[in-house]
Amino acid sequence: MRALNLLGLSTVLVLAQYAAAQTWYFLTFFTPPGSYITSYSGSFVAPTLPQAATYYLWPGLQPSDNAGVLQPVLDGRSGTWWIGSGWCCSNPSLPWGSGFNVANGQTVRFSLKVNSISGGTWATNLTSSAGGAATGSFPLPTHPMNQAIIAIELYNVAWNFGQFAFSNVVIVANTTSTSWCTNGPTNYQKAAVVSMSTPTATVSGGQTTCSIASVILVRPA
Prior knowledge:
Layout: E1 22-30, E2 37-45, E3 54-63, E4 69-75, E5 81-88, E6 99-102, E7 107-114, E8 121-128, E9 133-139, E10 145-155, E11 164-173, H1 179-182, E12 186-187, E13 192-196, E14 200-204, E15 207-220
Antiparallel strand pairs: 1-10, 1-12, 2-7, 2-11, 3-4, 3-10, 4-5, 5-6, 7-8, 8-9, 11-15, 13-15, 14-15
């Protein structure tokens, strides 16, 4: 799992220097300059895992300095999906939260929430439709988050597991701007075919809540 350098989307190609067989598909919502995400939640369905291989599927948050990524990761290396939350991959060094196995087709609910608008300690919560549960706590006071991401990260393996489907995605940010939500996410290099319901934005108390009923990374473009 690797943080994305999103200062310019083309700079993600630098990652190829580290792993020639690494492949990315991801969507990113960027909040306006000087505004930050305070919570990110939703549900996704674990696809059918074809084999034991380095499949990393995740929603996550990244700060404006691109220092790392806070991510609940669906990990397929053992041949059975496992999910847990962590901060990858640079200072500060923080332990991963707890995790659990996820069967093919199960629904996982994720929630990431910070206790301070401009950056503080993030609480992560994961639950599955089969009763799995895991939590984590990540003090990141110098890394306020401005990017909400949905990613497929693959190493030496193809996207051969079908769609990665999300529902009831909600992103809250401390801004009254709504265009960052309603304009939709960027689709890195247009590498994925995406099916998405129209995002809706509501403003209250100086914050915008961005809601997306369905987001599906369908297949490679």
